[in-house]
Design goal:
Blueprint: E1 3-5, E2 7-9, E3 12-16, H1 17-26, E4 34-38, E5 43-52, E6 56-66, E7 74-80, H2 84-96, E8 101-105, H3 117-130, H4 145-151, E9 157-161, E10 179-184, H5 192-199, E11 204-206, H6 215-230
Parallel strand pairs: 1-4, 7-8, 7-10, 9-10, 9-11
Antiparallel strand pairs: 2-3, 3-6, 4-5, 5-6
Helix pairs in contact: 2-3, 2-6
């Protein structure tokens, strides 16, 4: 069944803007068709299309079921700002792997590209629909390196994937944590000063293996390990 994001009003779901265009012009759905609507809460709303107007679709709610795909742990990925291709892959795949928050941050060796919030919001919605999540994550602004460091204090556990680290963290220990942050670099890596600043915080530094990984591969590897051991 097709999945759309909309707004709840009473016992109806209203589908607007790009989601409405996709429903009407691309999929050519009609009154009486069934769909699953999401309003960025913990539920899936099983609906029947009641009416299709000029600028909106109105749906009757037939049933409400708890969404099974939303993450149970709060995992935040801090990803050094990469090139565009890696940026797009990181957004899509990290959402599929259960991040609750995604922040890109600038550093000494990071890419220099503007953030298009509208495009990022669209990517987030597409990824959430792909993996059947009902709650959208925020399209956050790009952080400075210092702002990223400031945010680390609020987490139960912070894991820093650092290519110069020779030790492997025992990820089985992570299951007891509920609010987890992950830090991953980009193509240029971290400067010695930046790596030292991160390590001076209360973080766990780990290797991801002897091979140097692309930044999107590194973030997916780290998220996969966290997901497996937290059952997220």
């Amino acid at each position: 069944m097709r999945r759309f994001f909309g707004e709840k009003k009473g016992n109806e779901i209203i589908i607007l803007e790009d989601e409405f265009f996709h429903l009407k012009k691309v999929l050519r759905m009609s009154e009486g068709d069934k769909l699953i609507a999401c309003i960025s809460d913990d539920n899936d709303y099983y609906c029947t299309i009641k009416s299709i107007l000029k600028d909106r679709c109105i749906c009757d709610i037939d049933d409400i079921q708890e969404n099974k795909s939303n993450p149970k742990k709060h995992i935040t990925l801090f990803q050094m700002l990469p090139k565009k291709d890696y940026f797009d892959k990181t957004v899509a795949k990290s959402i599929e792997l259960g991040v609750s928050d995604l922040y890109f941050f600038k550093s000494e060796y990071s890419a220099n590209m503007p953030l298009k919030k509208e495009r990022l919001s669209s990517q987030i919605m597409t990824a959430c629909k792909q993996c059947e999540r009902s709650k959208l994550i925020s399209a956050n602004d790009i952080l400075s390196f210092d702002k990223m460091l400031e945010k680390l204090s609020k987490f139960d556990c912070v894991i820093f994937a650092y290519e110069k680290c020779k030790e492997y963290y025992d990820f089985a220990k992570i299951s007891s944590f509920d609010n987890i942050a992950l830090i991953v670099g980009a193509e240029g890596g971290f400067s010695e000063k930046e790596a030292t600043q991160i390590c001076q915080r209360k973080v766990i530094t780990t290797s991801l293996g002897s091979r140097i990984l692309r930044c999107d591969t590194a973030s997916l590897t780290l998220l996969t390990l966290v997901n497996y051991f937290t059952k997220n």
